[in-house]
Design a protein that fits this description.
Elements (H helix, E strand, L loop, with lengths): L1 H11 L6 H21 L4 H29 L5 H11 L1 H5 L12 H12 L10 H19 L4 H11 L13 H5 L12
Length: 192
Amino acid sequence: MHGARAPVLQGSAADSSGPCAQALALIGQLYWIERAASDRQLEAPARQRLRQEQALPILEKLQAYLQEQRAAALPKSPLGAAIGYALRNWVALTRYTEDGRLKIDNNGAEQALRPIVLGRKNWLFAGSEAAAHRTAILCSLVQTCKHLQINPFVYLRDIIQRVSTHPARLVLELTPREWKRPRKDSGAKAAV
């Protein structure tokens, strides 16, 4: 939903009472529903029911409003581009209502990729294709640890010490998600 909201925000700078403001108000209601679900700490099935009951009617209003406004907006204007983007990607933008585990936007993924994007030119000098592959694996492990609220240093130190003696058939036990299970109460978690 963030992808649909950003172009509308750019278009709204010039007009705080027109079509952009109305679209942003509807999008704001969707985020309010998500905030309420988070405040209530709803599990995935309850979050999905809430979205089905409250967000779907708002999304239907938003879609109808965008289709109505498409006829009046110039296709290459900021508003026309935002409307075109939202309607072309409507299925993807509304997918979160079908599964309570999904987020309303992809901000988390974008933030996880930010260090990679910022260091993009540095990655050109990994030394070899194999070294770049190993770097990608390490970055994926670190970001997965951060997502699971595991201190990456604690995880990697433990895994590096154990990997040579760990049975190959049990290698999945070394993934961050499986590694975390027996340690939930051991203090391996850290604010990342």
